[in-house]
Amino acid sequence: MLLVLRDCSENLSTTCKPCPPGTFMSEPNGLHNCLTCRNCVESQGLYIQSKCTTIKDTMCDVLDGYHCIDYSDSQCRHAQKHSVCEPGQETKRPGTKTLDAICVNCPHGFFSPSGLTCTKWTDCTSRNEIQTEIGSSVKDVTCTPKRRGRYGLILPVALTPLFSIILCLWLMYKSNAMLTSVTAQKYHSARNGVNHYINIFGNWKNATLQQS
What we know:
The protein is of the alpha+beta class. Helices cover 31% and strands 27% of the residues. The chain has three domains: 1-81, Tumor Necrosis Factor Receptor, subunit A, domain 2; 83-145, Tumor Necrosis Factor Receptor, subunit A, domain 2 (Ribbon), CATH 2.10.50; 162-212. It has one helix at residues 147-211; strands spanning 2-6, 15-18, 23-24, 35-36, 46-50, 59-62, 66-72, 75-81, 89-93, 102-105, 110-111, 119-120, 129-133, 142-145. One of its GO terms (biological process) is defense response to Gram-negative bacterium.
């Protein structure tokens, strides 16, 4: 598009020239100066969608992670970063180019360490465990195995040496009992033998006296 370099006169027609770089003129208007091209400022959440030409202004668009807070002539003039949900919250609605993100607090019994999604506390009983520490909006409950389960493993290990000792004592008792029984049998056998010989000697002695 052209701008007016010199207005027409009685002898000369209007003289025009092209817009210099960085300016534009979108329609004929008889202006002596072109309009300045718009800047898309990144710090304001904008980027260049299409560059400025001599007949068209720069087109800006909203950066990812931002939403527009100021519109003018159907274009965003200024954008702002989306809200970031804090721990203990979840994102109810993600942000868009036109709307900010919406955060809500986690209800009781749920937690969110990152601020993205609320997760229900772990049910320790469903895992056959006991709850040793209560949860919060940012931390899950703490579950530990039941003590009974631990004792079920420890008790057999602890009783094994005791059973071994009892078995050894019982074997020693049986061995001593058998030894005592054998000794008693030998004693009675020897005693019976002595008595037998005494009886024979007594009978012989009586017979000898009778003959005399």
